[in-house]
Automatic annotation (TrEMBL):
It comes from Prasinoderma singulare. Belongs to the mitochondrial carrier (TC 2.A.29) family. The keyword Repressor does not apply. This is Mitochondrial carrier protein. Keywords: Membrane, Repeat, Transmembrane, Transmembrane helix, Transport.
């Protein structure tokens, strides 16, 4: 129905959003922890990592949510269109203008509540990542007599923390995607969204989405796409975190 291009819908917003998100996130994460220490708010190691992760995540979620909405709308546009209907894919600009014209700027913040609920993800991921790194560092001292971690050790720590956090908090990803996918009923398909399946009642908010999914699909509905999500995100997080750690070491030199 869509050809090879169908596999790459929403790529442009992703290519913009991912580097923007992480280039903001890491400095904010380190900066938040530094502010806590300078302000005299001494927290135990794990709690400091949780506080830094949640603070940075909240700011980055607010700043980048519009791009996630664009990506979701582009990926799901005309999902229910009949074959041969003649409805063509939207460009990024067409989708962006359609959302703004037909639904208003608030539509760009659909799913933000679910994203903020997903701060539990980074609250788990980053303390685990720091813990895994420290364990790897202790092993490196015992085996190699050095503190510097090898790339494979950083990648293992990043992927392990991500896998655990994603599995525990994945429902927020489903909720965010469902809320971002649906268009305002009056706006229709012109905004670049898909709407919903036949007979589906639009979600009125986060709690209504939870109730509908659990009632219609059960708990399994909250974990749809988890395996594909792990296949997509684990290599990405390994590259992102390893690149950041290497830059932290190399740039001062």
């Amino acid at each position: 129905r869509e050809g090879m291009r169908g596999w790459f819908r929403g790529l442009v917003p992703s290519l913009v959003n991912v580097p923007v998100f992480w280039s903001l996130y890491f400095p904010m994460y380190d900066g938040a922890k530094e502010l806590l220490r300078e302000g005299g708010y001494a927290l135990p190691g794990p709690m400091e990592h949780v506080a830094g992760a949640v603070a940075a995540g909240a700011v980055c979620d607010v700043l980048t949510n519009p791009l996630w909405v664009l990506r979701t709308r582009l990926q799901t546009h005309n999902m229910y269109a009949a074959p041969g209907s003649g409805v063509r894919p939207l460009s990024v600009l067409e989708c962006a203008r359609g959302i703004l014209r037909n639904e208003g700027w608030r539509a760009y913040y659909k799913g933000l509540g679910a994203s903020l609920l997903g701060l539990s993800h980074v609250a788990i991921q980053f303390p685990l990542y720091e813990n895994f790194k420290e364990r790897a560092r202790r092993r490196a001292r015992d085996r190699r007599g050095e503190d510097e971690l090898q790339m494979v050790e950083i990648m293992a720590a990043a992927m392990g923390a991500k896998a655990i956090a994603s599995t525990l908090t994945y429902p927020h990803e489903v909720l965010r995607a469902r809320l971002q996918y649906q268009v305002t009923p009056a706006a229709g398909a012109a905004s670049g969204g898909g709407g919903g399946g036949a007979g589906a009642r639009p979600y009125t908010g986060l709690l209504d989405a939870v109730r509908q999914i659990l009632r219609q699909e059960g708990v399994a509905g909250m974990y749809r796409g988890l395996s594909l999500n792990l296949v997509r995100t684990l290599p990405a997080v390994a590259v992102t975190f390893t690149s950041y750690e290497q830059l932290v070491v190399w740039l001062p030199k």
